Task: structure prediction
Amino acid sequence: MSTDARPGRLPGPVPADRRVPELDPALVAEWRAGGGEPIDLFALARERLGGVAAVDLGTGSSGPTVLVTAPEAVRHVLALHPDRYVKRSHRARLLIGDGVLAATGDAWQRQRRLLQSQFTGPGMRRYERRIAGAARTAAERWAGYARTGRVFDVGEEMRRFALDTIWRSLTGHPLDPGTERELGAVAHVVAELPSLPADGGAARGAVAAELARIDAVASRAIEAARDGTAGPDGPGLLHVLLDAAGTRPEYTDRLIRDELVTLLVAGHETTASTLTWLHLLLDRNPGARERALAAGPEGSDGRRRAVQALVHETLRFYPSAWILPRSAARDDVLCGYRIAAGTDVVVCPYLTHRDPGIWEDPGRFDPERFTVPGRRPADPGSYLPFGMGPRACLGLQFALRESTVLLEHLLPDRTPRFRSVPDGAAYSITVRPGGPTPATLG
Result:
C-alpha cells in the first residue's frame, strides 16, 4: 500500500484484479508466539496494510484470511453482494443448532421472514410493556442495593435484566429464580466457546451438562406454551413459533427449541454486554451521564435521544457483532482486489469503529457523534454494530429499546461506584468485559 494511506482506508484507486496485500508471516509468527488475541493481529494488519488485508491464520483453509474494515469494502461484502460472501457455519452452532443465526439458504430466508415482523413496527409495540416490566424490576433491585450498601456485580445485573426481558418476550412470564439459575448455563457455554475443542463431538461433550440444562428449560417452556399457558402479558414469541408449526412442517420441536435458544442467546448476551460496557465507560466519563440527563426532563424526546446516543457510542466501542466471518462463494473483485472462491473473509466492525482514518478521535467517548449533525461518518459502512445487509441482526430495535428504557430508569438516581474494573475484554460471540464488575450504588 502507499505510505500515505490512512489506517483502514483503501490506498487510493486500486488497479482492478490486484492481489490483497498480506501481513508479513514473521509478524504473524511473533503474534502466535506471544499468545495474543486474534483482534490484536487484525489491528496490526489494518494498521500496516489498510482496510482490505490478508492474514495467514494457519487455520488450514484454502489460503490467508481476508480482513475487511474499510467502509466501502464492508458494504460490498455485507450489503451489496451477500450472495457472493456467505455464512459457512456459526461458532455457537452446538448451542443454537439450526436457529436463524446459524441457518443458511432457503431455510434461513423462511425463518427470518417469520421472525422479522416481530421486531419491527407494530411487532415491537407488543413488547413495550414487557420491556418496561423488566426495567422496573431491575430498578427495584437497584433501589435495594442503594438502601443496604450491598456490593453487587454490574455485569450480572445487566445479564439478569436482559434475560428477564427476553424471557417475558418469549413466554409472556417474568423470569422466575429457578429458570434464571438453569439458564446460567447459557452464559457458561458462551464463555467457553473460544476454548472448546475443534472437533464438534468433543466440544459438545465438554459442555454436555450445560446443554442438557438448557434443553430441559426449553422443553418445559415449549410444553407450557403448547398447553395454552399464556403469561400475564399474553402470548409471546414462542407462541408464534408454535403457530408456525401448524402450517410449516419444518418447525419441528427441535427447530422450535433451536429458535428459542437462539433468541435467548442473541436477546440477552449482546444487550447485557453493551449495558455493562456503558456503565464502565460512564464511570470513566461521568460528564457524559450529566449531559444526557441535562438534555431534557424525564420522558422528553431530548432525554431519550441523549440516552440512545450513550448506547450508540458504547456500541461503537464494543459492537454486538464485533466480527462477521464470511466465505467467498465464487471468485470476486473486492474494491479492486482479487478474492478467490473459498477464501475466508472477516468483516470486523470493532476495528472499523475505532479507525482514526474514519472516525475523529475514535478513542474518546463522545455520544454527541450521534446527536450533532455531521459528527459521524456519512458512509453507512462506517457504523454497523449489529451488522448490515440482509443478515443484519433482527433484534436491533428491540435491543436499543430495552437498553434505553432501562437507562431511563437507572441513570437519574443510580450511579455504580466500581470496586474494581476488568483489565481488558474477552472476545467470544460478543466482546465482554474480561472480568467481574463489583460495585456499590451512590
The longest strand covers residues 324-328. Residues 25-441 form a domain with the Cytochrome p450 fold (CATH 1.10.630.10). The chain has one domain: 25-441.
